[in-house]
Recover the amino acids of this structure.
């Protein structure tokens, strides 16, 4: 079993590798001046003995770890950017862990965190299991959550965006343009932020006196493929919606592709609103109207809060929950519905 | 976009090392040696075990041996970089490594100090993306036995640094030949930074295509860009203001092609009716531009996979790698048309 790295272990490793203790020490501390051959011998002995280097790294080569469920390009860029704003001035680097699902990291993840000498963690996940929270605390690794599915407890800093308001903003904009028949593609049903977006959207339609039509709300994921598949379904309806609210910008890309495939023009035939405001929204044609969720600001804030908590001894029980505002960014993918245009023309 | 739908996918079942050993008909010790990159195993055996480990999605337990990190050192982050990073991350994860990102903030000169911090972390390998390595940095990494590779190298001054890139010269040639075939003679170019290998190679391909077609070089048609959109807008305006303006513009990356789109839109110039535009990269969104962009596809994902595989293989076998360029291809969409 791994030992705590005392002198006796160094001697054993040196003995097995047939080198001096000083050489072992140089290898362990990542110094130069050791031949490749000796380094390999020492490393091999270290592995055999299960020696774990003391986590000196926490002070000398600190990392901020970003944990994400998946790695959608433009979305992940924003998340990493925010972390970099905190990491770079502090001489820290960023490590990215992908969990493959949004509920939590794999069980082995935590061992890596400890070995890597992580100084703070920002998790863009629904939550973190109690056991993991306990183990991170036991090792004094502070962490913060972004857009969690439920409150992770008052002792965990949390950053969210006003997702419900964002859904309302999207609906309100489309209703204001005269749309009545509005389709929507949601994010995963088991993610709180995606439920809030669609709930806000529905609430706003209700407020405007537009009867709910569940046939126009299709389930998706936050990706282009589901935007394409569900966008096609919506646009091929006999009485197709005049506008579509996509749960995320990547999904909106899929809706664009669906419209293009069916020979429909945006916004003349169908208006599209996204959510996130990723980098590409101004590069596609027409530029995408979207609900801006300040992702980089969110991870930046989360990283700051986590690092601040790490400086507190002992950790304060009550940690901040910061909610950042979403804003509607109107570009060129939304316009009055075609029906209204025609009616006005007849008058 | 790949990497999607993961949120609903299932994880591969956990396979033990004993399962792998049984399937490969070798001892458990052999599997362990392969996993830990030790010498003394026949290449064929090593290969078989590695393939099985990979097929079973075996994740090396992180408490075994070194910290399992692949460190990506890049100049700055953008969507383009992220596509490479995604390729690195996925390949590394398949092989049981975590990916780390160090951003240095400069395209060519990497910031000082990163190499010391990197060495202290002892990553399994370093992948330098779109940035140069100083003599000192190379020396330090070599001394520490940390293998490194350049992904889309910025310079050809480093024959001793293994590298994975794209066939930039040939891409430049194909793009230009496509425009010539459409009847264009006055073809403008918006380059990348002048000292960057990718830009110089693409421009050389452009020049070769012109000379093959017997079209004389017009230096005023070559505008220097920086691979970003704002300068591309300005440079497009300069090109369009020429007494004999180009009928087509070859932007040496897609982001600059969108700058050409914007400059054209501001002047009410229609693409491709009045101006043809070709890009380079084929970003995810390029087919959704208005009009969809004709461009040269760089296999970013494959380049990233190749770099990770080669550099980790080098670590295992201590074998030197040369330089490798993956093929580029012309994707004709709707931003190019016959000259009027």
């Amino acid at each position: 079993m791994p030992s705590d790295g005392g002198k006796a272990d160094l001697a054993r490793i040196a003995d097995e590798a047939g080198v001096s203790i000083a050489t072992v020490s140089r290898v362990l501390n990542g110094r130069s001046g050791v031949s490749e051959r000796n380094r390999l011998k020492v490393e091999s002995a270290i592995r055999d003995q299960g020696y774990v280097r003391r986590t000196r790294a926490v002070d000398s080569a600190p990392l901020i770890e970003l944990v994400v469920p998946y790695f959608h390009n433009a979305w992940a860029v924003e998340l990493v950017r925010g972390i970099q704003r905190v990491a770079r001035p502090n001489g820290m680097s960023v490590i990215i862990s992908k969990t493959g699902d949004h509920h939590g990291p794999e069980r082995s993840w935590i061992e890596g965190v400890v070995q890597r000498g992580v100084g703070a963690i920002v998790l863009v996940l629904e939550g973190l299991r109690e056991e993991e929270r306990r183990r991170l605390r036991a090792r004094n690794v502070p962490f913060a959550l972004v857009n969690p599915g439920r409150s992770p407890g008052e002792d965990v800093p949390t950053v969210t965006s006003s997702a419900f308001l964002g859904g309302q903003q999207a609906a309100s904009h489309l209703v204001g343009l005269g749309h009545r028949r509005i389709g929507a593609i949601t994010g995963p049903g088991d993610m709180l932020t995606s439920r809030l977006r669609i709930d806000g959207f529905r609430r706003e339609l209700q407020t405007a006196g537009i009867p709910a039509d569940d046939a126009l709300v299709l389930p998706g994921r936050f990706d282009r493929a589901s935007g394409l598949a569900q966008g096609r379904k919506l646009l091929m309806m006999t009485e197709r919606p005049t506008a579509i609210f996509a749960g995320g910008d990547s999904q909106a890309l899929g809706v664009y592709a669906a419209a293009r495939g069916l020979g429909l023009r945006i916004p003349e035939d169908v208006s599209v609103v996204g959510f996130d405001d990723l980098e590409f929204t101004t590069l596609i044609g027409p530029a995408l109207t979207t609900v801006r969720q300040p992702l980089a600001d969110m991870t930046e804030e989360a990283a700051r809060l986590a690092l601040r908590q790490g400086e507190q001894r002992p950790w304060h029980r009550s940690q901040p929950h910061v909610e950042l505002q979403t804003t509607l960014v109107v570009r060129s993918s939304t316009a009055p519905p075609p029906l209204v245009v025609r009616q006005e023309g007849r008058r | 976009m790949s990497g999607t739908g993961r949120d609903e996918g299932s994880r591969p079942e956990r396979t033990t090392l004993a399962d792998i050993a049984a399937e490969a008909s070798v001892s458990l010790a052999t599997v362990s040696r392969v996993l830990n990159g030790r010498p003394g195993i026949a290449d064929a055996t090593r290969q078989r075990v590695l393939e099985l480990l990979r097929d079973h999605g075996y994740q090396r337990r992180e408490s075994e041996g070194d910290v399992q990190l692949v460190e990506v050192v890049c100049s700055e982050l953008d969507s383009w970089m992220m596509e490479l990073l995604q390729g690195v991350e996925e390949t590394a994860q398949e092989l049981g490594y975590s990916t780390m990102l160090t951003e240095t903030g400069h395209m060519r000169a990497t910031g000082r100090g990163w190499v010391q911090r990197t060495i202290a972390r002892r990553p399994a390998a370093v992948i330098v993306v779109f940035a140069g390595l100083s003599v000192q940095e190379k020396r330090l990494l070599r001394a520490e036995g940390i293998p490194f590779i350049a992904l889309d190298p910025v310079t050809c001054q480093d024959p001793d640094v293994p590298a994975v890139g794209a066939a930039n010269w040939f891409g430049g040639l194909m793009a230009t030949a496509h425009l010539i075939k459409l009847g264009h003679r006055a073809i403008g170019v918006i380059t990348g930074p002048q000292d960057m290998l990718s830009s110089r190679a693409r421009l050389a391909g452009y020049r070769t295509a012109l000379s093959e077609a017997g079209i004389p070089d017009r230096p005023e048609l070559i505008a220097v860009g920086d691979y970003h959109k704002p300068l591309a807008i300005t440079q497009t305006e300069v090109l369009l203001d020429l007494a004999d303006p180009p009928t087509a513009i070859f932007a040496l990356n897609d982001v600059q092609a969108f700058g050409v789109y914007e400059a054209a839109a501001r002047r009410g110039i229609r693409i491709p009716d009045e101006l043809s535009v070709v890009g380079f990269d084929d970003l995810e969104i390029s087919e959704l531009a208005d009009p969809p962009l004709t461009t040269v596809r760089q296999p970013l994902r494959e380049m990233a996979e190749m770099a990770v595989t080669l550099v980790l293989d080098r670590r295992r076998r201590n074998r030197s790698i040369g330089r490798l360029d993956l093929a580029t291809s012309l994707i004709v969409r709707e931003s190019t048309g016959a000259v009027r």
